[in-house]
Amino acid sequence: MSAATRAEAAALDAADPLAHHRAAFDLPDVIYLDGNSLGPLTRAARERVATVVGEEWGEGLIRSWNTAGWVDLPTRVAAKIAPLIGAAPRDVIVTDSTSVNLFKVLSAALSEALPGRRTILSEPGNFPTDLYIAEGVAAGEGAALALSDDPLAALDESVAVLMLTEVDYRTGRRHDMARVTAAAHRVGALTVWDLAHSAGALPVDLAGAGADFAVGCGYKYLNGGPGAPAFLYVAPQHQDATQPLSGWFGHAAPFAFEPAYQPAAGIERFLTGTPSVIAMSALDAALDVFADVDLTAVAAKSAALADLMIARVDALCGDHLTLASPRSAATRGSQVSFRHPSGYPVMQALIAAGVIGDFRAPDILRFGFTPLYTRFVDVFDAVDILADILAARRWDAPQFHRRAAVT
Fold first, then answer.
1. Would the annotation count 197 as a binding residue?
2. 6-18+294-401: which CATH architecture?
3. Binding site annotation covers 288?
4. 272 a known binding residue?
5. What is the mean pLDDT of residues 98-111?
6. Catalytic residue list
7. Cα dist. 227→45, 68, 99 in Å?
8. What angle do CA 281, 285, 290 make, to 5 degrees?
């Protein structure tokens, strides 16, 4: 699908089977193309948080751990995420942050690795926190972190764990999870996948791919709110592994208050401390929007939105921008990125004009597509505005060059 005119883009929106989901979101009057960084507020999450604060906490107080089911939130929310990532509910838990969960599953993976293997393999373009956590795990476990621009070529019998992000955060390039996992397994290595830029935006099949471990966040395409709780996946054959953060919620009987740690059976041993009830309740409510969503349709619309942006940027901005993302939807996540030597002020000028994307160093303009609320006319109009900013050099003003703390 493509559109040469705005009327054609509007016609695509009118025929869109996902269009009615837009009403579930409480969207301000902007073109929002940054759901791959922070998903917008859903109306259901707004209402749930008000109920949790005003009624469950305000009136129920401590009783709400039982009467409102707070204690069951980690597994209840996991059951909603599981079908989005191709997993059984018993293999997913919602807890902590992505970084903390990565620490847990990397440590567990090393404990499950074949004897003598102490290398974690990744790529230098992986998301920095993943590399930082891997450095820390390697240092504490007497292991080593190795980086390769071609991790498949670097796989050998010294590798314990291959750690990759399915969709690259800068360019949107997508790994073939099944093919990469099979390659790792052929040399006896385990896999850890980061799903931060794929869960909720694309069909993911962890079980079908044979993945060993995975982590992901709740605040991007899952729309759980800033700093929303994260999730982790552990394949059934690894659920007896030792994870190093032996907190009381991961205990077999947390309210027995025993002095020694006894891990829970199954995925619940990957819990740590007391869950953040308000944040987890917001994520719980936000996930209801996926109840009747076909992720194949989501992926198809995502590809069409991205193709439209690429075609219009080629036509209107080709002298200014270089495509950083794959052109083929088969190897691309739900985002499109372009390079510009003054990417930061260009993005700031675009945001000031009412089109919100984001910038990633050193020169990336990044645009995320969330098909449940992103429209074809949004993409059409966004490129028109971007083209005007570039042609008139509206970005080259002092206020757009000043760096904020968050880019």
1. yes
2. Alpha-Beta Complex (3.90)
3. no
4. no
5. 98
6. 127, 194, 219-220, 366
7. 14, 23, 12
8. 140
